[in-house]
Amino acid sequence: MQTINIWHKHHIHWRKIILAVFLFCPAFVFSQRNVMENDLKFARKPYHFGIHLAAGLGDFKIKQNELFASSDSILSIKSKYGMSFEIGALMSFHINKYVELRTIPSFVFAQKQIVYDYADLTTKELKPALSQIYFDLPLEIKVKSEPLKDIKLYLIAGLKYGYDIGGNFKDRKKPGIPKQSAHDFGVNYGAGIEIHFPLFILSPEFRVYNSVINIHKQDNTIPESRFIKGLYNRSYTFSLNFEG
């Protein structure tokens, strides 16, 4: 009787394992099918579209000039991180199964802060923070991996042009705020994950941007501006792209 009971217990246990395998297999096949169906759908057309939403942090890379080095009135000029938000549309052109050429025209709303430390131990921080509204137009290469279940990893790199449409705002003309050029240009790079669903692809992505041109416009009527040689935008952004 003891042998029969042991066999009966193992028999029930194996039935549970077999049942779990049969339940798991359809889920695995379905997730693989999501990737294959999306790949086939994209292969049948040369491009696809999407929606881009993002938030991040941004500041300035600041370069001082020779006057700053010889000044005994100001000790440092620093930039503090501020929040930014983006909304835009994604357009991606399929070069092959692994490579896409894409652009994401977006509106970027950002705030940045400049802090001046003086020799008399006082600190001046711009109030309110310096506001920027850019229309960004990047051009990027996206390189994707082979699928792992319903996920693909990818890298992106490219160039971005930005036009500052907030240059005439009142808070940009207050005393002590350095004047800026409306045009910006720099380098984008980052990484992300494609998560394939039956009807769309969700792509969480992290990007870094570094400007390569000086947006500072010299104005000697602004005392602090006399010490700045260059202002360069930079940002760190997390985005969600909904593609289909």
List the helices and strands and how they pair.
Elements lengths: L1 H42 L3 E18 L1 H5 L3 E7 L1 E13 L4 E5 L2 E13 L4 E3 L4 E15 L6 E14 L14 E2 L2 E14 L4 E11 L4 E2 L10 E16 L1
Antiparallel strand pairs: 1-3, 1-13, 2-5, 3-4, 3-5, 4-7, 5-6, 5-7, 7-8, 8-10, 9-12, 10-11, 11-13
- End-to-end Cα distance, whole Å, is 62 Å
Q: The biggest beta sheet, please? A: 11 strands, antiparallel
The Cα radius of gyration reads 27 Å
> Structural class given helices, strands, pairing?
alpha+beta
Question: Topology as H/E string?
Answer: HEHEEEEEEEEEEEE
Oligomer: single chain
Please identify the top-level CATH class.
Mainly Beta
> How many individual β-strands?
13
Low-confidence stretches: 6-12, 16-31
Note the beta-strand portion: over 45%
Describe the structure.
The chain has 244 residues and is of the alpha+beta class. It has a single domain (2-243), classed as Porin (Beta Barrel), CATH 2.40.160.20. The protein is 19% helix and 55% strand. The chain is built from 2 helices and 13 strands; from the N terminus they run H-E-H-E-E-E-E-E-E-E-E-E-E-E-E. The strands form 2 sheets. Strands 1, 2, 3, 4, 5, 6, 7, 8, 10, 11 and 13 form an 11-stranded antiparallel sheet that branches. The protein has a two-stranded antiparallel ribbon with strand order 9-12. Strand 3 (82-94) and strand 4 form a beta hairpin. The radius of gyration is 27 Å and the shape is elongated. Mean pLDDT is 81; it is low at 6-12 and 16-31.
